[in-house]
Amino acid sequence: MKIFVTGGAGYIGSHVVKLLGQYGHNVLVYDNLSTGHEWAVLSGTFVRGDLSDRRLLTDTLNDYRPDAVMHFAASIQVEESTREPLMYYRNNVVNSINLLDAITDLGIGYFIYSSTAATYGVPGTSPVDENAPLKPINPYGMTKVMVEKVLQDTAAARGLKYIALRYFNVAGADPDCEIGQAYSRATHLITRALRTAQGAQDRLSVFGTDYPTRDGTCVRDYIHVADLSAAHLLALMYLRQTGESDIMNCGYGHGFSVLDVVNVAKTVTGVDFPVEFAGRRPGDPPELVADSTKLKRLTGWSPLHDDLPFIVETAWKWEQRLSRKAGASDR
Ligand code: UFG
Question: Relative to the CA of 116, which ligand 1 atom is closest?
């Protein structure tokens, strides 16, 4: 298939692009490189472009004529979204509407969307399934709820077929160590812990120790980026076969606390890095764990890397490679 991938130079998008290439798909990556890197695009053609540039977007789509679109490009940091809500609504909602405008005008029928567990807010059950109420507690989560709604209405009006994948906490790196998280200001726990182990920051702050969880720190469902990538291919195949739009959670179904992750990171790296206990970070729900029964049942998804030490090991190998790479300062 010909697949147009927005955000394909970023962390998750680049892993999916690599996998699409391995499965023989023809890929065009459209990315503004605000957080991504052209070197991370291991398959297909690269076009540097912004989704707000409607002329370039339409011209690129017109020339390429894809069969399907995968839309990763977005701002993704919960805490930043509480400080910069307008940037989040513009990047995530307005730009997604630009993209949908362009593709529905061209009659492109299949769409895979990167949604998030942040749509649930503070779920009343754990694990949480797709029928839980959507009550986001930060602007980031709200942008994703809004685009899911836009997709639903666009599907009804224009015949678009879509799958929205609600990601839980994506982590780890390509097991071949060719790509990984490469954003210098990444705020994700595992990346921060490993960069502390490397000495790139003095200490790791644990945000909040008074949550209603086992050890008082937040609990998350960490999913390896390679398993998440496989879910994208399976979702696209399912969509082509059935034409049924849907929304599916992507996670393993069990959670680890911040302190669990810190301990695994110390074991994997062999570094007893300094940790400080800090106040809560705005926008953080206490616990997010996925019920991914639907994804497994409908697409046959069967994760291969449900193993936190393996996730951290792949991320650690990647962080070490990245710090050796020339120009590591601008990662
Ligand atoms: N944390 C720390 N110290 C850090 C970084 C993070 O204690 O230096 C804590 C956070 O406060 C949170 C947990 O580690 O409790 C996980 O934080 P991350 O930043 O790694 O991830 P989030 O859960 O905030 O968000 C991620 C994605 C979102 C997605 C969400 C879904 O960034 O896009 O997972 O579960 F919506």
Answer: 36
Contact 16, 226 (CB under 8 A): no
Taking residues 123-144, report their average pLDDT.
96
Active site residue 140: yes
Beta bridge partners of 249: 166
Residue 283 confidence (pLDDT) = 84
Residue 328: pLDDT over 70:
no
Catalytic one of 30, 140, 222, 238: 140
Cα gap 10→181, rounded to integer Å: 8
The token duo for 58 is 């339409």
Find the radius of gyration of the CA atoms of the chain: 19
Residue 283 CA: which ligand 1 atom is closest? 24
Cα torsion 79, 83, 86, 91: sign: negative
In this prediction, what percent of the chain has a pLDDT beyond 90?
94
Using a 6 Å CB cutoff, which residues line ligand 1? 76, 78, 116-118, 168-169, 187-189, 192, 204-207, 218, 220, 258, 281, 284, 288
Domains assigned to the chain: 2-172+222-250 (3.40.50.720), 189-220+253-289+307-330 (3.90.25.10)
220-241 per-position pLDDT tens digit: 999 999 999 999 999 999 999 9
Partners of 68 in the beta sheet? 3, 110
Contact 116, 223 (CB under 8 A): no
pLDDT digits (tens, 9 = 90+) for 263-319: 999 999 999 999 999 999 988 999 999 999 999 999 999 999 999 999 999 999 999
Residue 189 Cα to ligand 1 middle (Å): 6
Q: What is the mean pLDDT of the chain?
A: 96
Q: Return the number of other C-beta atoms located less than 10 Å from residue 301's C-beta.
A: 20
